Amino acid sequence: MRVIYRITDIKKSARAVVALGVFDGVHLAHRRILGDLVEKARTIRAESVVVTFWPHPQRKEMLYSLEHRLKLISDLGIDTCIVIKFNKAFSRMPAERFITDILIKRIGARYIYVGRNFRFGYAAEGGPLLLAKLASLYHFKLRIYEVMKIKGRRISSTHIRELIATGNLKLASQLLGSPVSVLGTVVRGDSLAKAWGLPTANIDPHHEVSPPSGVYAAKVRLNKMQFSAICYVGIRPTITKQKKKKIEVHILGFNKKIYGKTLQIEFMQKIRQEKKFASIGALVKQIEKDILRSKKMPSLH
């Protein structure tokens, strides 16, 4: 997927199918829009384009980092993603000018897909109604998506964020349409686990919402490779109590140096709560039990 960060770098497409939105988390409702976008673009041999924004126009806390969001969008088969920097200057752009100058003149939108509640332009004056009003004038077709609900509750990034923070990963994963995950960079740690014969990768998460403290069966994605793993989230009370939660992952059957690499950790199932052990030896024995238990979990196979 081609990613464009500057409006001036956009090259007009002869035919583009465009989806507008923040798409934080790329949850089920987003996947419905983006899946239709890709299908339509392939059917009419057009370019599939996502126009998104960073940071969040409403200054909300993000569920996933921009890099994580772009990875998930790319995985859905999108051709191009345009990331518009939502700064003071852009926030003052009138909604109709955004449509004419960016969507039509710069991108060449022939089809525009948007959620019913999406707003854009100065003071959030633009939305589906304005797009519908201008569709015939600027010769594009518009598809508006209603709010998607499961069991009577609308799917939203805010709700999913709350579910992850409170440990309801099963429902969060259902609403996301994929396992709850964290994207982060491998950084150097104190190498204690390596000395115990259980090497871990210390993760610096990219400003993401992480699950509550505990030990989880997980899958780790490194580039195009996937591995089974166990992941620890917590303050390490047995060793030295941290003020900030740490994320460490032990990749099963893997012992290579991957400092500086970006990993995607998918939380499949919780194994146990965080606990303070009487000794390091007791902690090591428990980790070994955690590994054996994770290997028996169907979610990892």
List keywords for this structure.
29% helix; 14 strands; Elongation Factor Tu (Ef-tu), domain 3; Rossmann fold; 2 domains; 301 residues; six-stranded antiparallel β-barrel; 29% strand; six-stranded parallel beta sheet; alpha/beta
Query: Roughly what percent helix?
Result: 25-40%
CATH class of the largest domain, named: Alpha Beta
Q: Note the beta-strand portion.
A: 25-35%
**pLDDT averaged over residues:** 93
Helix/strand-derived category reads alpha/beta
Total strand count, please?
Answer: 14
Taking pLDDT < 50 over at least 5 consecutive residues as the criterion, the unreliable ranges are: none
CATH topology name of the largest domain, in short, is Rossmann fold
Describe the sheet with the most strands: 6 strands, parallel
- Gyration radius over CA: 22 Å
Q: In the CATH classification, which architecture of the largest domain applies?
A: 3-Layer(aba) Sandwich
Number of helices: 9
Shape: elongated
Report how far apart the termini are: 29 Å
Structurally, the number of domains stands at 2
Major sheet strand order? 1-4-3-2-5-6
Q: What would you give as the CATH superfamily of the largest domain?
A: HUPs
